[in-house]
Amino acid sequence: MYPGTEGLPPRVALLQLITASWVSHAVRTMAVLGVADHLADGPRTVGELAEATGTDAPTLARFMRALAALGLVAHDAAGRVGLTPLGEPLRAAVPGSLRSYALAIAAPSVERAWHDLPNALRTGEPSFPDVHGLGFWDYLAAHPEEGALFDAAMTGSAELRSGVLPAAVDLSAIGTLIDVGGGQGRMLAAALASAPGLRGVLADRSEVLPGAEAFLDAAGVRDRCDLVAVDFFESVPTGGDAYVLAHIVHDWPDEQAVAILRTCHQAMAPGARLWVVEQVIQPGDEYDRAKLLDMLMLVLFGAQERTADEYRSLLQAAGFGEVVIHPTDTPYSVIETVRH
Fold first, then answer.
1. pLDDT tens digit string along 101-149?
2. How far apart, in whole angstroms, are the C-alpha atoms of residue 258 and residue 271?
């Protein structure tokens, strides 16, 4: 059951579900206006905030009332508006910022794809290309501002995942860790920081590597890792004691997902480990955010989130054997297997 609807009469609970999109629209608008950043130095009057955001003060007062009802801001005794801990991550420059995520995931282009979910269910194909005339990645390439926003959103979510691997598995016996599709290298940097004897290889598209080099250098681990340009459908570096695919497999339908895993399998020596970091759909009918994320993957890419058994099937199809799943205190699990 969706959080917040427990114990409500069915019609009231259903109304909550029907109007749930109102919340995401309000959060996105808060991000668009930069409200959290304008409140970073402390509470302000609605008039001051309206001047800063270029909005109509009486109308903004109504919007602040709505945001306060969501717990994102709060009014003090003088009627000034202040930022709450819940609203803090909507600031642009704070560690773990979710502002770009709010802007990208609730962007109008994504919303239009959601609206065509019924057709995606009829065909099993993504709705985004039908709505926009381009696949998701081609659309972002043709709209650089949205592409940059999506990249920033993924960077923010990568921060949430970055500490998952060292928290879930023992890296002390690993000599070389190869991060396939590792983006800027946030997870690799966290792994290297947690295991002083570890060396890393970041393998990703050539256009990604300059950003990765800058990030790894700033993190103080550039001297312990190599950067290699790859197409993970064609090849990945050999010689790793362990390989990690973080937030990669869920972007692809089964056939392509197996192809990526098979490429890793071919590069790995017997005894090498593979760690797949993903959200694993939980069994049963209880609420699980991954079950809704699965629908987003459908409309954007024709891809999917998966259950534990579905990940086992993918890995076995790619040539791997036994699979162990390590849950974490984040939404992500580490799915572990060994090359035999």
1. 999 999 999 999 999 999 999 999 999 999 999 999 899 999 999 988 8
2. 20
Distance, in Å, from the CA atom of 316 to the CA atom of 110, rounded to the nearest integer, reads 33
Residue 80, domain member (yes or no): yes
pLDDT value at 50 more than 90 = yes
Instruction: List pLDDT tens digits, range 26-48.
Output: 999 999 999 999 999 999 999 99
What is the C-alpha R_g of the chain?
A: 22
What DSSP assignment string belongs to 8-61?
S-HHHHHHHHHTHHHHHHHHHHHHHHTHHHHTTTS-B-HHHHHHHHT--HHHHH
pLDDT of amino acid 197:
93
How far is 35 from 40, CA to CA, in rounded Å?
9
**Amino acid (one-letter) located at 271:** G
DSSP strand pairing (73-75 vs 81-83): antiparallel
Active-site residue, selected from the candidate residues 132, 143, 250, 265: 250
The answer to the question of residue 2 being in a domain is: no
Whether pLDDT at 167 is above 80: yes
Largest CA distance in the chain: 68
Q: Is the pTM of this model over 0.85?
A: yes
- Counted domains in the chain: 3
Our answer to whether residue 250 is catalytic in this structure is yes
Q: How many residues does the chain have?
A: 340
Q: Which residues contact 40 (CB under 8 A, 6 or more apart)?
A: 83, 91
- Write the burial class of residue 189 (CB in 10 Å: 0-12 exposed, 13-18 middle, 19+ buried): buried
Helices (H) and strands (E) in the chain, counts: 17, 11
Q: Count CB atoms within 10 A of the CB of residue 232.
A: 19
Range of the domain at 148: 100-155
Residues 120 and 223 in one domain: no
